[in-house]
Q: What sequence folds into this?
């Protein structure tokens, strides 16, 4: 893929959004050129029809020449056939341009989301991302779609102006001077519409994010009786969004009315002038018929141009949102000169805490505060920068893709995606069955109507918290990374299930390094090595039973539930 035309980190300016739309157009330049070409021929063939009709009136009807009438009638039929054929081709290419722009934008945003990884939710609200994938792609597609008709409209107006000039200089001047004035009048409505659309778009994204938060936390809200409060807050925000939508619609309604009234008034002016010239004998009856046809036809290209301005403006607003996302950069930069890992497995060492993870062992980290364990896991997986080495090589000197390939951090913030469960877990049936047994999750699949072929709902909402936790563990086991870091993998399951998982986990991960951040005695007792972390540092290490006897602080931490 070519380099993306995005600005430096920060809020993109007007030019960056324009460059993005231009970049999309260049990526599909053959179809864009074809669309503009067909659009010009399609519109010009319509613009020439009044002139042909005028010739048929003067040469055929006024002079009673059947041959001339037949000739100009044939020319009119030919123009109609050309218009029909090129209209079909223009529409087909325009739809292709719409789809190409919209779905290329989706591809870019998905690639960027994958590139940002954990940085994305920190920098951009969920509603903003959703709006890009729904409303914005449509506006961007429309901006490229309308170029074919817009270009044809401009050429058609120029063609009519040339014909009128050759027939009547005053009428030609009316068109040449009047059309730019009309465009300036309509353009005056575009700037306030642009501002209001931007404000409405931002507010819509915030409300979408709030709706997602409410749906996600609905069970908690019901548990604490907070439904009414959040419903009232959402209702107030919704009414505010409605008011913003009304303000946008007010300007849009004026723009729509101007698209009808202003060209209509212009048509009346041209017809009136043409009639006066005909009465004075300055133009022929056929030319008067042509002028009326021009005046009637001009409404179409003029409205097309105002529509083009409107859609390009909307596309520009949407492009600014997309560019804002594309301009985001990861919290962790790639190394300028990436290092290579030596062959074979090596120790994973966190210099800040003193944690050492050795290959082929199940290492448990028992921290006196959950935040310390989470911070260590984030540093080990390089989700935050730290003094961490793998096989003696600092993680910050390794390509991030290499780190993600070697080290997998699985925590309870992971989501289950919608789709067949088999595809969500990954792997063949044999491997999935073995991972389900290790995670004590076989009963979950057995209870599903279609087993592994059952379609999982969004975020796996049909599963309980403990079931989701076990399925996330299955997914992590099937990934089978050289180093697996599990953060509280059994916090939501009962003691019997936890005991089975603890008993099977070590054997399933034999030969690879596994780190479990937990304070569960059942899991700690099955670990090969336990690290007790206090105030972010390793305060003691050894076997679980050894630490129970020699480290009172550790004993107090892991037996707290039993003492109560």
A:
């Amino acid at each position: 893929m070519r380099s993306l035309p995005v600005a430096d980190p920060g809020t993109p300016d007007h030019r960056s959004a324009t460059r993005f739309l231009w970049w999309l157009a260049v990526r599909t330049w053959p179809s864009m050129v074809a669309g503009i070409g067909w659009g010009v021929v399609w519109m010009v063939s319509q613009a020439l029809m009044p002139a042909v009709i005028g010739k048929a009136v003067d040469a055929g009807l006024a002079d009673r020449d059947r041959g001339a009438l037949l000739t100009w009638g044939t020319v009119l039929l030919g123009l109609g056939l050309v218009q029909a054929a090129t209209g079909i081709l223009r529409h087909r290419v325009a739809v292709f341009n719409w789809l190409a722009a919209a779905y290329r934008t989706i591809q870019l945003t998905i690639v960027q989301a994958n590139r940002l990884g954990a940085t994305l939710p920190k920098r951009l609200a969920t509603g903003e991302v959703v709006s890009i994938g729904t409303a914005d792609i449509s506006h961007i597609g429309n901006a490229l779609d309308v170029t074919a008709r817009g270009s044809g409209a401009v050429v058609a107006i120029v063609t009519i102006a040339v014909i009128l000039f050759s027939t009547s200089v005053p009428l030609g001047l009316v068109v040449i001077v009047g059309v730019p004035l009309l465009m300036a009048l309509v353009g005056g409505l575009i700037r306030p519409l642009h501002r209001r659309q931007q404000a409405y778009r931002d507010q819509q994204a915030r409300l979408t994010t709030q709706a997602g938060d409410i749906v996600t936390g609905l069970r908690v809200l019901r548990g604490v009786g907070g439904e009414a409060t959040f419903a009232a807050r959402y209702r107030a925000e919704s009414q505010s969004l409605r008011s913003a939508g009304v303000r946008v619609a007010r300007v849009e309604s004026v723009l729509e009315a101007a698209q009808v009234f202003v060209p209509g008034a212009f048509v009346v002016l041209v017809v009136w002038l043409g009639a006066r010239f005909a009465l004075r004998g300055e133009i022929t009856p056929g030319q008067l018929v042509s002028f009326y046809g021009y005046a009637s036809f001009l409404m179409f290209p003029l409205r097309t141009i105002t529509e083009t301005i409107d859609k390009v403006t909307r596309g520009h607003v949407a492009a600014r949102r997309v560019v804002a996302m594309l301009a985001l950069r990861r919290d962790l930069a790639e190394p300028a000169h990436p290092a290579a890992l030596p062959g074979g497995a090596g120790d994973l060492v966190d210099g800040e805490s003193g944690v050492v993870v050795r290959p082929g062992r199940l290492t448990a980290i028992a921290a006196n505060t959950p935040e310390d364990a989470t911070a260590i896991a984030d540093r080990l997986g390089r989700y935050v920068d730290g003094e961490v080495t793998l096989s003696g090589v600092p993680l910050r000197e390794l390509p991030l893709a290499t780190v993600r390939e070697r080290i997998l951090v699985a925590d309870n913030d992971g989501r289950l995606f919608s789709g067949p469960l088999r595809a969500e877990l990954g792997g063949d049936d044999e491997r999935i069955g073995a991972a389900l047994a290790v995670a004590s999750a076989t009963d979950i699949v057995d209870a599903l109507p279609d087993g592994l072929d059952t379609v999982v709902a969004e975020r796996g909402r049909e599963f309980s918290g403990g079931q989701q936790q076990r399925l996330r563990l299955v997914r992590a086991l099937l990934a089978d990374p050289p180093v697996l870091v599990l953060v509280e993998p059994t916090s939501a399951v009962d003691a019997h299930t936890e005991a089975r998982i603890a008993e099977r986990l070590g054997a399933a991960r034999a030969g690879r390094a596994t780190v479990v951040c937990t304070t569960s005695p059942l899991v700690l007792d099955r670990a090969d090595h336990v690290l007790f972390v206090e105030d972010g540092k390793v305060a003691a290490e050894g076997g679980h039973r050894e630490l129970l006897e020699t480290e009172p602080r550790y004993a107090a931490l892991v037996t707290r539930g039993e003492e109560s």
